[in-house]
Amino acid sequence: MARKPGPPASDDGIEDTPESGGGATGQARARKAPGRIGTPRGKMIEAFMTLLAEQPWETIGFRDIAARAGVSLAELRGQFSGKLAILTAHIKEIDREVLDGDQDDMSDEPTRERLFDVLMRRFEMLAPYKEAIRSLLQSARTNPPLALALNNFAVNSMQWMLAGAEIRASGPTGLIRAQGLALLYANVMSTFLNDDEPGHARTMAALDRALGRGQQLTGVFDRVCGLIPGCGSRRRTRPARTADLDGDAAVAV
Fold first, then answer.
1. Would you kindly state where each structural domain of the chain is located, as residue ranges?
2. Cα-Cα-Cα-Cα dihedral of 80, 156, 145, 207, to 10°?
3. SS3 content of the chain, % helix, strand, coil (to 5)
4. What's the Cα-to-Cα distance from 200 to each of 135, 193, 196, 222, 226, rounded to whole Å?
5. Is 81 helix (H, G, I), strand (E, B) or coil?
6. Which fold has domain 40-251?
């Protein structure tokens, strides 16, 4: 049965891509990602995201972050190598929250339903950071290195989301799926940032449409890939749509 979405909630390095992963149960999350508040590292991440919501990426300095977090420059440097490292830690924590918990109640759902559920949970986790995301994307438009870094972060994150939806995310095919899903997610992000409806109804509709289009495109890719030797070596209330296609690859992008 479908379920309605809950209220929005809210390392420097990037982890290797997993073969599989768990998922959160989708319960109400009115707080920001746990594990932050109360720890010096968490305060630094939150301070940076708060500053990012207030001003452009390029104007945020290390002293600004340290002062907002109530720590010294030495303490900040001890935890992070720079602003990208702080952003990476934020993304990693969001992904961990999405993947945390028991996914047994989703295992019997069609693949597209599982992917929809995982991606909507991620949007819910990002809800407290809408202004920071808006600011970040604005800066990326005039900062090619930042834009490239954001794409790399997005692809890595989508590999984890695919794994959370029990879709194979390794190898060349998995990388293509993750890149396609990152583009799909970015397209829906513009709707999400301007969606003030309860339960993010507009975001759900946009994601559903995007997954439908991606389903068709991936079917074409898989047919072409099948001709190339070695290629590939929601439970939520949402708008009505066409029937799901069978198979993991049919819903990846």
1. 40-251
2. -120
3. 60, 0, 40
4. 20, 10, 7, 32, 38
5. coil
6. Tetracycline Repressor; domain 2 (1.10.357)
Decide: helix, strand or coil at residue 244: coil
Residue 217 tokens read as 């495109």
Three-state DSSP class for 220?
Answer: helix
**What local confidence, expressed as pLDDT, does residue 11 receive?**
43
Q: Are 162 and 177 in contact (CB under 8 A)?
A: yes
Query: Please, are residues 9 and 33 in contact by the beta-carbon 8 Å criterion?
Result: yes
pTM of the model: 0.73
Per-position b or e across 94-103, b if 16+ CB within 10 A of its CB: bbbbbbbeeb
pLDDT in tens, 131-146: 999 999 999 999 999 9
Distance CA 243, CA 106 (A): 18
Average pLDDT, the chain: 77
Is residue 170 classed exposed, middle or buried when 0-12, 13-18 and 19+ CB atoms within 10 A define those classes?
middle
